[in-house]
Amino acid sequence: MSIEFYQLSMTISLGELGEQLVAQWLEEQDYQILHYRWRCRWGEIDLIARQKSHPTLVFVEVKTRSDHSWDHKGLEAISSRKQQKISQTSALFLAKNPQLADFYCRFDVALVHYQKQNSTNSTHQGDPQKFLMRKNYPPGYSLILENYLENAFDFSD
User: What's the CA gap between 122 and 107, in Å, rounded?
Assistant: First the structure.
């Protein structure tokens, strides 16, 4: 699956673009995306994916941030309250999808960095080994999957 800007609505947010970038990366890592932005009364899960080679279900929280974010590139936004909401939401998802109830469940966090491009910063500065994927969309912005944290937190009741 390739993500092309011309396929995207002009009203799409950078957060949604970050989610699409992570979804594309997951697909390249042998995952099938089951849902984008699955919602219920308790909250939303950005991505729900199934690992194709193992009975693993992954609930992914995506944080898309710029250099000037207040929350350590989105990591501090995954508070214990946010984790509880994601856990409750995933429990309802499993209740509505009993065919997936026996899967091993994992809670991952993806940190996506974006920056506005100009003639002096056409590439992201930093350790090139740290960045997993780079896409230049929408025009004038660069989005990079900077960090993917498997098992970022545990299921809590």
Answer: 33
Q: 44 forms bridges with which residues in the sheet?
A: 39
Question: How far apart, in Å, are the Cα atoms of 14 and each of 63, 88, 127?
Answer: 10, 26, 23
Q: Are 13 and 26 in contact (CB under 8 A)?
A: no
Contact call for residues 16 and 143 (beta carbons, < 8 A): no
Task: Answer yes or no: are the C-beta atoms of 131 and 142 closer than 8 Å.
Answer: no
What tens digit of pLDDT does each residue of 41-98 get?
Answer: 989 999 999 999 999 999 999 998 776 654 555 556 677 888 899 999 999 999 999 9
* Domains recognised in the chain with CATH numbers: 5-153 (3.40.1350.10)
